[in-house]
Amino acid sequence: MDFWIQTGSPEARDVPGVVDNMPEAIAEMYPADTDRMVLSWNGVPVSLVYCEELQVMVDDIAVMLARLAEGSDKPVHVRWGPSGFQAEWRINRDGDDLVVDSHWDTVDWGPADLLNKRSRLVVPEAHFRSEWLKVLRLLVDDIAARSVVMEDTLIFDQVRAVLAAGTLPLASAEQIQRGARIPRTTGNTVEFRAAAEESKESGAVLWAVDSAVARLFTGHAALVSQLLGIPSGIGADARIDGEALREFCEVALDRYGRTDQGIERSLTVGFLATALELLHRAGHDVPPTVSAEQRAAWTALRDQHAPQMPR
Description:
Blueprint: E1 3-6, E2 18-19, H1 22-29, E3 37-41, E4 44-48, H2 50-69, E5 76-80, E6 85-94, E7 97-107, H3 112-117, E8 120-124, H4 125-145, E9 149-150, H5 154-166, H6 173-177, E10 185-186, E11 189-194, E12 205-210, H7 211-228, E13 239-240, H8 242-258, H9 261-264, H10 269-281, H11 292-305
Parallel strand pairs: 2-9, 11-13
Antiparallel strand pairs: 1-3, 3-4, 5-6, 6-7, 7-8, 10-11, 11-12
Helix pairs in contact: 1-2, 2-4, 2-5, 4-5, 5-7, 8-10, 10-11
């Protein structure tokens, strides 16, 4: 295979106190002298240090995979920013393959001149994505195992959503028979719809969203559903089951208010506001909470968030 990644078995240390975000967690958790990640590009190995290069790259990796998950024919452009790994990739689709045209500026732990001579990479998309997903999985698992506490979990939540979206089940036989996709797309948008009666082709459009955001939202829903042990009511074909979503939101609001930070990393405010607005458009109010004040606060947040969700 012309492209592969070896994550190694880096030592993960305990991180005292609270760090700012996921990149700082990576920088603090992995020592400089532990196993490195090795990336092989057309037979040329490149070594990357977790606490240096990977802590800068993690956000770009998640964004790259989210863009690829859209399934769009538009090129995906990546500019790697670490001081020891400065390169530019332009990724295009060719059937089931990805064609990556690259330019390598600075590579501390690899031969940039040879990489530039072998600048074009052709690799099966499924393999390319799976190699990067295992890197994100290692980072998330180590952070969880060390119970690292972060002040800002935005990147961590995005990475977990990308991981969840990367392992979503394929469409069911019933969905395939009626032409469903994951998610159902119209142009560059995804239409989330209320569950329709069997006699109808489709339900009312509740949210027409950019496909990248839709994929992350669906992945986040799958992740939270797994944590809560209850179906989200958000179908793989972008359908919304109002009653199931109402029960899901009720459990999520309850858990959000009384559980530790480990759960709250996934039950983010933005995700819940989005789910509550979908619930509202499906004809359901914010579920009852412990106090009327909390319910009023969630209602206000939902209403504030609604203009960001075009129909």
